[in-house]
Design a protein that fits this description.
This protein is an alpha/beta fold. It is 36% helix and 28% strand. It is built from 10 helices and 10 strands. This is ABC transporter ATP-binding protein.
Length: 242
């Protein structure tokens, strides 16, 4: 079994006339939390969408669990145990929290058919999901919507969770709750790939890190190494993690 659950090798992605990814090489180690960092427009979201088959790679290879998924469609990719939470969260605002969760639970037609033990575990991770169970999802706060989006992604067991900017626009207390939840998810054996701009969030959670610039991975290593090297931080990100 490979040490890497997910690997991208020489991935190029075109969107219309635009060449966005220029040979991305990315490794996501099994059982770890990998951060994908970079300035706005570096290609981070395009990388996630390419992994999920929402945009097709024009060249290169995406492998999950050693299997080539480059040409697979999004439903096929999701069925292999990959969950994706986009930056806009993708919740159904007119449905209740409960109805959003039922839709995400493939084997359930009612809330009673969701695995109760797993649901109670999710409630412990995200108490707001239980508190607002019967409320319209569109009336939740931004932080509560983000909690619902992640909870919905893990209502079924997943090997890999991919999340695009989970802390964006959230209050510090909600960010701390999100950090605790991701730490518990990782402890449970879920491999996690996060795009993140909040450097404090990144430092507290990350095992490994890849930094993107102009559609390429320009640095890969441990989060601890990057956090300790201010010159490297300035060169790659134009800021200090201190």
């Amino acid at each position: 079994m490979s040490a890497n659950l997910l690997e991208l090798q020489g991935v190029h992605t075109h969107i219309g006339a635009y060449h966005i990814l220029h040979g991305v090489d990315l490794q996501v180690p099994r059982g770890q939390l990998t951060l994908l960092l970079g300035r706005n427009g570096a290609g981070k979201t395009t990388t996630l969408r390419t992994i999920m088959g929402l945009w097709q790679a024009s060249q290169g290879r995406v492998a999950f669990n050693g299997q080539d998924i480059t040409r697979q469609h999004t439903p096929q990719i999701a069925q292999q145990g990959i969950a994706y939470v986009p930056e806009n969260m993708g919740i159904f605002a007119d449905l209740t929290v409960k109805e959003n969760m039922v839709l995400a639970a493939r084997g359930a037609r009612t809330a009673a058919q969701i695995d109760n033990q797993r649901l109670q575990w999710i409630f412990q991770l995200f108490p707001a999901v239980e508190k607002f169970w019967n409320h319209p999802a569109g009336k939740l706060s931004g932080g509560q919507k983000q909690m619902l989006a992640v909870a919905r992604a893990i209502v079924e067991p997943r090997e890999l969770l991919i999340v695009d900017e989970p802390s964006k626009g959230l209050a510090p207390s909600i960010i701390n709750n999100m950090i605790d939840a991701f730490a518990q998810l990782k402890k449970s054996g879920v491999t996690i790939l996060l795009v993140e701009q909040n450097i404090g969030f990144a430092k507290r959670l990350g095992d490994t890190v890849a930094v993107m610039d102009n559609g390429r991975i320009v640095h890969a290593g441990t989060m601890a190494q990057l956090a300790q090297d201010e010159a490297l931080q300035q060169r790659l990100l134009g800021l200090s993690l201190a």
